[in-house]
Amino acid sequence: MTNLSTIPEDRSFTFGQSNNAGFTKVDSGSISNIFRQEIKTGILRIKAQGSDAPLLVGLLANGDPAALKYAEWTGKAFQSDGLRYVLRKIENPLDVERALIDANEDPDVHGIIVYYPVFGQSKTFSGASHDDFLRDTVSVEKDVEGLCHRYRTNLYRNVRFLDYPRDSQKCLLPCTALSVIKIIENLKPLNRYYNHEFPVGRRMEGQVVTVINRSEIVGRPLAAMLANDGAQVYSVDVDSIYLLLGNTGRIHACDITDTVEECVRKSSIIITGVPSKAYRLSAGWIQPNTAVINVSSYKNVSEQDLVTFPGVVYVPMVGKVTVAMLERNLMRLYKNFHDPNKRRLQPKEKLKSITDETKQSAVSSFLSNSLQMYTAIIVTALLFVNMSNRKP
């Protein structure tokens, strides 16, 4: 499930508001509005073509009040922006798989979100966690969170499109991790942390990032995405630290003596995602002009300590951008797989492909047959000459 650090956000500062020390607190809602406006325009275009807005189905099978709250918030955001959303509550977790398959096969459903955990770490026939099995059961055409095997594999191999070599269908990325990237792209001053003038894959070159979280949903994909953009990334978990070298695909296990403090002190961007109220990152490790982004539902760093640091940019919550990325991913699924206008063109494209293949096959067959005929004539002539030259 997408990270639950969604609601409500502290609005004591507006976007880009700074104090006398140069500390800036960012309201992520100002960034999310950029994407939500694009989404609204896209929905109007779909409706103008005579189609309904894309439909997202949520499957909820746990009693977590935070999950229910997130589902309700998603519904409100979707309604506000003109998208469709249906929440299906499931009493028995064993019925989730059937509901998931039904949604996969329903042509009216354009995206699916499962609110994890369903089984958590409970041992099941499917392995250590049945939740992993459920993630891979979501169709690639409807996986709005980008967590199925195909999308995960492409992310960790830095493959950005589904349909090489045409490169017309972009892969989907996990919503919370993607929201962090979009926040970094839009932080002021522009190009300090993400240089838009660099080519794709190099726009975070020179940045050192520490990500304190390595979950399958947030920390691990986020570290890969940052490295795919050229950053040097320290991935920190409870008992280990890994270093991802930007755009090389190389990962190194850091020495056991390396500490979180050393990583943080080197970093120009720090991302905290520890799901614990007790955890606090020491503000004394943070350097001036560092961007600090909190993706946890708990405050992992003290804002009161940060306000005295010159040039620090602080994003206390990412939830509103996460919801915008959920909407954006649904629109991408619709564009990639469900747009009826594209579907009408597919038979013509397939026919053209078949025609081209038929022509190519016919040419190959003609050349092959011609070569065989030519060879037969030459062999026959040689045999005739050979027999004529024989003495009686």
Question: What are the main properties of this structure?
Answer:
392 residues; alpha/beta; nine-stranded mixed sheet; three-stranded parallel sheet; 11 helices; 12 strands; disordered N terminus
Describe the structure.
α6 crosses α10. The chain has 392 residues and is α/β, with parallel strands linked by helices. The chain is built from 11 helices and 12 strands. Helices cover 42% and strands 13% of the residues. Strands 1-2-12-11-10-6-7-8-9 form a 9-stranded mixed beta sheet, with helices on both faces. It has a 3-stranded parallel beta sheet with strand order 4-3-5, sandwiched between helices. The chain is globular. It has helices at residues 28-48, 65-81, 96-105, 130-137, 149-156, 175-186, 219-228, 260-266, 303-306, 319-338, 340-388, and strands at residues 17-18, 24-25, 55-60, 84-89, 111-115, 208-212, 232-236, 241-245, 250-253, 269-272, 291-294, 313-315.
